[in-house]
Amino acid sequence: MEIKDHVLIRKLDQLAESLPIAFREDFYGAALGSFINGYEFADARYENRSDVNLRALKLSIVNYLKEKSKGKVNVPLRLLV
After folding, report:
1. What pLDDT is attached to residue 39?
2. pLDDT of residue 81
3. Are 46 and 8 in contact (CB under 8 A)?
4. CA–CA dist 64, 58 (Å, integer)
5. Pick from 49, 48, 58, 50: which is nearest to 28 by CA?
6. pLDDT score at 23
7. Residue 76 phi/psi, 5° resolution?
8. Which residues of the chain have pLDDT under 70?
9. 3 phi, psi to nearest 5 deg
10. How far apart, in whole angstroms, are the C-alpha atoms of residue 40 and residue 63?
11. By CB atoms within 10 Å of each CB, which of 53, 55, 63, 81 scores lowest?
């Protein structure tokens, strides 16, 4: 079964909605770091938060999850529970 980008993004946004707006960017960054621990973006540090494109960050998470669903990567999915 193929994972649809818009479905995952909607789920991420629903989780983020429970946070104050100021923390949402950090939420997406933390999610990406958790999903891709040991992967090339795992320890990404954002010096200038205003330069972070949240849409691109969300799509990075979605693309990672698609690869995970195909069995191409192997990390804990603790944030999906």
Report:
1. 43
2. 37
3. no
4. 10
5. 58
6. 74
7. -65, 145
8. 1-5, 8, 32-57, 64-65, 68-69, 71-81
9. -85, 130
10. 13
11. 81
| Whole-number Å distance between alpha carbons of 14 and 48 | 25
Q: For the chain, what's the residue count? A: 81
Q: What is the pLDDT of residue 12?
A: 74
- CA-CA-CA-CA torsion sign (47, 49, 52, 57): positive
The token pair at 27 is 């939420």
9, amino acid identity: I
81 burial level (CB within 10 Å; 0-12, 13-18, 19+): exposed
Report the distance separating Cα 2 and Cα 57, nearest Å: 20
Tell me the backbone φ, ψ of residue 12, rounded to 5 degrees: -60, -45
